[in-house]
Amino acid sequence: MREAAFVKQNKEKWIAFEKAIHENLKISPDQLADYYIHLTNDLSYAQTYYPNSKTLLYLNSLASQAHQKIYINKKESKNRIVEFWKTEFPLFFSQHQKTLLYTFLIFATACCIGIISALNDSSFLRLILGDAYVNETLNNIEKGDPTAIYKSGSMVGSFLGITINNIRVAFLAYAFGVITSVGTAYILFSNGIMLGAFITFFYTKGVLFEASKAIWLHGTIEISVIIIAGCAGIVMGNSILFPKTYSRRVSFMKGAKDGLKIVVSTIPFFIIAGFIEGFITRYSNMPVWLAMFIIFGSLALIIFYYIIYPNLLKKTYEKQLHRVKTD
Q1: Residue 322 within a domain
Q2: Cβ pair 91, 316 in contact under 8 A
Q3: Do residue 58 and residue 165 come from a single domain?
Q4: pTM (2 decimals)?
Q5: pLDDT tens, 302-317?
Q6: Co-location of 65 and 206 in the same domain
Q7: Which has the closest alpha carbon to 254: 85, 83, 96?
């Protein structure tokens, strides 16, 4: 599309949004968010097809003002926490799902490398997992309970310790983004290799299904959310490498805030994973159907909240915005 046609097609929408910002028109936060989503989509399009144009400068300026209006100056509601997880975050995250895909591919590639390495070099398992863990698990396998290590300690103590450690790993994956996306990619890669070696260890001992039935009870959410935290780090890291039309400092500040928002969204899921590992995983002798229900239910929860729900919400708000424009 030629730039003139692009401007003609969207200028009424931009002007309406600009008036809403500068004249403090009484529009709901939801409508304001709708405008913002459309604006960022137009900005992304302009960055691709009209670089260094006046249209791009205008949209970039308007987007910056809109971001301040929505995230800094708006009045906080009494249900601010609920609104964050229910509406604000899913709408925001819809623009970062491609980054999540890349993050998953990095982690999956590392996991495959871990599997291949462990299959071809028996010493690799001890190098990655440590002698103490390998020896203890070998003893447990001989006793007929390969996941007995998850049954030690008190339930509450395990729950708190595991949850805190998982949150620490998530913030570490995010924080390494400060040395660009390469830092977070390193964290993802090391964890992916460890997971691959971990899975292979049980496979080589012929207890993969029995072990997986217990480990993935909590591991489904735990691993998924580590990947999502990695997405947060890459968002921040990319803001340094690719500032686009912003100055590098402004781009980094925006990327850091966006990444932090993604990390914060994972905290409830880490609590759920910690609860499952502390209180449920120890009952590895549960019926297979119950274990599968928890595992696939956990996977469905992650996929729905981070992939399906943001897209559904975005489409709903786009329809509302269209109605507002045509009224």
Answers
A1: no
A2: no
A3: no
A4: 0.73
A5: 999 999 999 998 888 7
A6: no
A7: 96
- For 102, counting Cβ atoms within 10 Å of its Cβ (0-12 exposed, 13-18 middle, 19+ buried), the class is middle
CA–CA distance, 88 with 83 (Å, rounded to integer): 6
Q: How far apart are CA 28 and CA 32, in angstroms?
A: 6
The two counts, helices (H) then strands (E), for the chain are 14, 0
Question: Residue 272 is part of which domain span?
Answer: 96-315
What end-to-end distance do the CA atoms of the chain give, in Å?
27
Q: State the average pLDDT over residues 75-95.
A: 78
Residues 286, 172 share a domain: yes
SS3 assignment, position 207 = coil
**Contact criterion met (CB below 8 Å) for 21 and 66:** yes
* Integer Cα distance of 264 and 51 in angstroms: 34
Q: What is the C-alpha to C-alpha distance for residues 62 and 69, in angstroms, rounded to an integer?
A: 10
Based on the fold, state whether residues 41 and 113 are members of the same structural domain.
no
Tally of domains in the chain? 2
The single-letter code of the amino acid at 88 is E
Which tens digits make up the pLDDT trace of 221-243?
Answer: 989 999 999 999 999 999 888 88
